């Protein structure tokens, strides 16, 4: 049973391109997506003012994964995460460090709305397990989720003020 303290931190979330693959593999992209009609052009990240290619470019911005994520109860958390990732990429910053808080908020929201986001959560868990197996194969030991948590906790900073 997972508890809030054992929840994988932001460092385990795959990059946005990989999340598109997760959505396709999970079959969630085939689920009907109810989008708020009031968010048609303004709902895209950056709004209509930032699109310079007309409707076609705007449609590219609103991929199936994004529409799915915005179709559930975590739209605001996803938009905040998406903006953070785009800023980090644009400014060539470390996305994991810069977006840790918004990623954690998004993950908690998705867990709270797991009935809707279950296909994504299930696919992420499978990816985490595969990454743990690959890490264990490289180290020559059996995979352990405790090993992954320890590695992640060690990389998240001490917090003892030193």
UniProtKB/TrEMBL annotation:
Residues 1-62 are annotated as: Disordered. It holds the Pfam family GCK. SMART domains: GCK. InterPro entries: GCK_dom. It comes from the Eukaryota. Residues 1-14 have a biased composition (Polar residues). Residues 61-135 form the GCK domain. Residues 52-62 have a biased composition (Acidic residues). This is GCK domain-containing protein.
């Amino acid at each position: 049973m997972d508890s809030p303290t054992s929840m994988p931190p932001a460092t385990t979330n795959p990059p946005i391109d990989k999340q598109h693959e997760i959505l396709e593999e999970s079959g969630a992209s085939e689920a009907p997506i109810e989008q708020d009609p009031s968010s048609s052009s303004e709902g895209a990240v950056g709004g209509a003012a930032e699109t310079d290619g007309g409707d076609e470019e705007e449609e590219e911005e609103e991929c199936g994964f994004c529409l799915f994520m915005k179709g559930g109860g975590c739209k605001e958390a996803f938009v905040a995460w998406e903006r953070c990732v785009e800023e980090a990429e644009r400014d060539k910053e470390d996305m994991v460090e810069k977006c840790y808080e918004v990623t954690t908020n998004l993950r908690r929201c998705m867990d709270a709305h797991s009935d809707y986001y279950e296909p994504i959560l299930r696919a992420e868990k499978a990816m985490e397990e595969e990454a743990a197996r690959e890490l264990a194969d490289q180290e020559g030991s059996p995979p352990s989720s405790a090993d992954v948590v320890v590695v992640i906790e060690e990389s998240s900073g001490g917090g003892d003020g030193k």
